[in-house]
Amino acid sequence: MVEILQALENSGFSMWVKESSTAYVAVLAFHTIGLAFLVGISGATAARVLGAARSMPLEPMQDFFPLMYAGLAINVFTGLVLICLYPVKYATDVAFYIKLAAIAVAAWVLRKLRILLYESEADADSIAETRPAKVLAVTMLAAWLIGIVAGRVTAYTVPTKIATAGAVIVVLIMVLLIGYAIRQLGKGRSSQQNV
Fold first, then answer.
1. Owning domain of residue 164
2. Same domain, residue pair 17 and 110
């Protein structure tokens, strides 16, 4: 198996992309553009389900899904090209498998959320208020976060990967605590106004 991966890594195509700064940068740029469409649109949909931009109805957001699928197609293609460049490294990198698992979870959850919101007879905005929709939205955002961080750290050494993972966990805990505090303050103010 290692011989096959090494042959792929040393193939003419892989060497051309690695040695051509234009080709390599173009692949990375398109991978980022695909990521922006895929994660950006699905993240905006999840944020809306979680209560952001309540004045925007969810129904028209369904029209963005073809752009999101285009982003997914771009990422699959550019991701395969990037894997071809260093397949031996990726085959032995735990972060790479975490990234793939997180992407699979995010894509599966996105599909479930789309079905829940848009293939039901109920109004998408009403469904967004339900616990199942919110759980799917949070799960998808968490999976994207894990996938993006894991994908980013594949370029790092093991100590840097560990430090990055630790920093992300600390920041995430801080964000959650700040969000919880803001929510509690909001509840306190609304209860005082009702008195």
1. 157-195
2. yes
| DSSP assignment of the chain | -HHHHHHHHTSHHHHHHHH-HHHHHHHHHHHHHHHHHHHHHHHHHHHHHTTTTTTS-SGGGGGGHHHHHHHHHHHHHHHHHHHHHSHHHHHT-HHHHHHHHHHHHHHHHHHHHHHHHHSSSS-HHHHHTSHHHHHHHHHHHHHHHHHHHHHHHTTS-HHHHHHHHHHHHHHHHHHHHHHHHHHHHHHHHHHHHH-
Same domain, 128 and 163: no
CB 107 within 8 A of CB 147: no
Query: Do 83 and 64 share a domain, yes or no?
Result: yes
State pLDDT tens for residues 10-55: 788 888 888 887 998 999 999 999 999 999 999 999 999 998 888 8
- Same domain for 65 and 38: yes
Same domain for 20 and 48? Answer: yes
Q: Provide the domain count of the chain.
A: 2
